[in-house]
Amino acid sequence: MAEYHNIEPVFDENSGILILGSFPSVKSREQRFFYGHPQNRFWRVLAAVFGEEVPDSVDEKRAFLLRNRIAVWDVIKQCDITGSGDSTIKNVVPNDIGFILSKAKIQRIFCNGQTSYKLYRRYIEKKTGIAAQPLPSTSPANAQYSIDRLTKTWQIIAE
User: Fold this and answer.
1) Which of 6, 40, 95, 112 is catalytic?
2) For residue 15, which of 1, 91, 104, 131 is within the disulfide window of CB 3.0 to 4.6 Å?
3) Across the 159 residues of the chain, what is the mean pLDDT of every consecutive 10-residue run?
4) Is 40 a catalytic residue?
5) 135-141: long-range pairs with CB below 8 Å, 24+
6) Pick from 86, 88, 106: which is nearest to 97 by CA?
């Protein structure tokens, strides 16, 4: 059964970095905001990278992203998916990130995990002409990366 992306991208005209996930988890779709599962380490990693407190509410998370010139969205607009598992994704319809690129000052694109990176390369990179850089997934399913190892690897977004 097709699932639809129900979260608007976060960005403004000052956003210089775009972080793309694959598709929102069930928890994120319920909360209607990115990385909503409490076990996902996205917010803890970004807070550590930028030396800030971990944002809690949706408003705090949105303000954190904009303050640090970060845009966030996902590669997929619609797909068939079972639960939150990237490995179950089929029948992908990609998001059009062109409107973000036309309104923001995006200089670098990062993908949160290999699935988003592969899908970006397959569906979007030719349209944007911008190569993305993959980063290890902040998902709890990526157990081989500790929070410290993730933070060290993700540090590149602040450089």
Assistant:
1) 40
2) 104
3) 85 98 87 91 98 96 98 93 76 93 97 96 95 96 94 97
4) yes
5) 135/110, 135/111, 137/112, 137/113, 138/35, 138/40, 138/41, 138/42, 138/45, 138/112, 138/113, 139/40, 139/41, 139/86, 139/113, 140/37, 140/39, 140/40, 140/41
6) 106
